[in-house]
Design goal:
Layout (H helix, E strand, L loop, with lengths): L7 H31 L1 H14 L30 H6 L9 E2 L11 E2 L6 H12 L14 H14 L4 H14 L3 H4 L1
Antiparallel strand pairs: 1-2
Length: 185
């Protein structure tokens, strides 16, 4: 084998670095494949959102990471009252993020996975619209200004049956926005 640098130690270091790079890329590819097949990111995102948006109870909520049938784009209404997390996942900005299951067969057309990523803007808009759906509607005189929209959102948040930690987070974010609707989003 030719001596590339004239220093055997440098050749060894370059060779080992190259081998470690290849092994790390291979390990990352395998990990990504496993995460995609098992929908680990979607389950982690859903668990985080449920921890943030669901009321605090001693029991864990039933896992809903199972595949959800979407006949004609709809979902059957549950018998019990829906929580904020469930309403959030049904929001029109979030619904299109559902993806068909990777392992779905031809006869298994109705199986979908929850999204594994939600952009911050989509999250903010969907959450605000879920908590205060009619706060940003246009008034009779035309466009409602930011201050009025934020006041209506604050009223809806305070009057809602949201868990205390969600109310606190939303009110704190609302206060930090200092009257700017885009900053609140």
């Amino acid at each position: 084998m030719p001596d590339l640098s004239g220093l055997p130690a440098l050749d060894l270091a370059i060779g080992l670095s190259f081998i470690f790079l290849l092994l790390s890329l291979l390990a990352a590819a395998v990990q990504e494949l496993i995460a995609a097949v098992l929908a680990l990111r979607a389950a982690t995102l859903e668990k985080g959102l449920r921890n943030m948006l669901a009321p605090e109870t001693g029991d864990d909520p039933p896992p809903s990471a199972e595949k959800i049938a979407l006949p004609e784009g709809g979902v059957a209404e549950p018998a019990a009252e829906e929580g904020l997390d469930t309403r959030f996942y049904k929001h029109p900005l979030i619904r299109p993020l559902y993806k068909q299951h990777l392992l779905a067969s031809v006869t298994d057309r109705g199986r979908f996975d929850r999204p594994s990523y939600i952009s911050p803007r989509s999250f903010a808009l969907a959450l605000i619209d879920t908590v205060a759906p009619d706060a940003a509607l246009h008034g009779e005189s035309g466009v409602v200004n930011d201050t009025d929209v934020l006041r209506a959102i604050r009223t809806k948040i305070v009057a809602s049956g949201l868990p205390d930690q969600v109310k606190y987070s939303l009110i704190t974010t609302l206060d930090n926005a200092r009257g700017d609707l885009d900053a609140f989003r």
